[in-house]
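[job 0412] stage=fold_complex status=start
inputs:
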Amino acid sequence: MSDLLTICDLHVSYHDGTAALRGLSLAVAAGEKVALIGPNGAGKTSLLLTIMGALPFAGSITVDGIDLTRGSAPRTRSRCGMTFQDSDDQLFMPTLLDDVAFGPLNQGLDPTAARKQALQAIVAVGLAGLDSRSGHHLSGGQKRRAALATVLSMQVKLLLLDEPGSSLDARSLRHLADLLAARSEAMLLATHDLPLVRRLCSRAILIDDGRTIADGSASAILDDHDLLMRHGLA
Amino acid sequence: MHHSHIDRFAQGHSVIHALDARTKLLAVLAYAAVLISYDRHALWTLAPMCVMPLGMLWLGRVPLWFALRRVAALSPMILIACLLSIFAESQRYRLGLGPWQFTLSSGQIVAINIAAKFVLALLALTALTGTTPFSQLLQAMRRLCMPRLLVMQLGLVYRYLFVLIDQAMRLRRCRDLRAGQSAPLGRKLAAAGSMAGSLLVRTIDRGQRVDMAMRARLFDGAPRSLATLRFTWADAAALAAAAIYLVFCRLIYPRVF
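[job 0412] stage=fold_complex status=done
writing structure:
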């Protein structure tokens, strides 16, 4: 498989000088589901935001063959979609349908095509019939799925999921895991939820303090209790 | 938490719900303009202006108590204007209502006029928002050439108002659980100040995250939307009826009665 996402020697610092990522490198192949695990403050969210072109960085990021720069960010964003930790950040339009059609309309689709694509995404995440609901009328699990629909409707190749299972009950988490397992897009899944990683991902990358600590098969990393203990995951 | 204060009855089915949002918005805007145009001493001539908001509420199956509760909730804002008017003008007028005769000062008449206009305008607004989903209202505003960014901001306010209320309620609950209710007044005020500051910071944070989420979905500053409104013959008839009604209220009724 060819690499859909390639990151080389990535450095990211915040305005106050705090280093979020220190020389991180990784690659994700098309269709591959990769878990990004690490303790709080390890740099998981910063990495996802940087891939979306939301944070300044040093190093190189290539998405689907396009080098990420300020000028190319809109093109790379149309190839990768991110769901945020708090789904309320992502559901900003008056109705679910408007929210899910927001991306396709900005991609230049006409309203009829955007509506069709949005309705397909809504059905794909199991929210058929709720398209006229407002974000504040959805449950926590529904909001997660709605947030996923907002990026699926853009027909992206890479999904960046930031803590997709946080604040979900067991049933909603199971639904979400089933939904993600059935998708063919590549995924980079930042999470603390190790059972979800075991269920969904073939590969895991452990990062801590902005650096890659381990990169390998998910089961090998999750079975290394000492490694997880050393990095606050067990 | 579950909120449905603003458009609680908007998803219903009735002849008013079936009308295009633009028809209802235009009718209510025209109604408000006519209401404002009445003289500040007008009392009985305002009577037929009750028909449209009450008719919309009745046909739209929006309970009157719901509308009156909203009027009551917002009435303190207008109360001060009414009270100030009462003392502003002292000239007295003798008025008759059927067999009853009574005397009112000019200030009292103005106060009643302000209160009546306020109640009627709010009833009309409640009838509009109670029979039209907010998303359609925003679309109607967009199609009626209101500035697109302003409409988008209204949409964001509507969407995040509830999130903000949730956060404020959570903060208040946390304060109360830490014996905030029994604290002395000074400490309560200090806590309220901190809470307001915290809410402001959270709101700014939220705004930045929403901006990031919008840009992640290729937002370039130009609002785009799906169009779902349809103007039919029923809408044309409703607009014509509203126009005839408003002309009758403003021009014919005051002269005939």
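[job 0412] summary: Chain B has a mean pLDDT of 87.
[job 0412] exit 0
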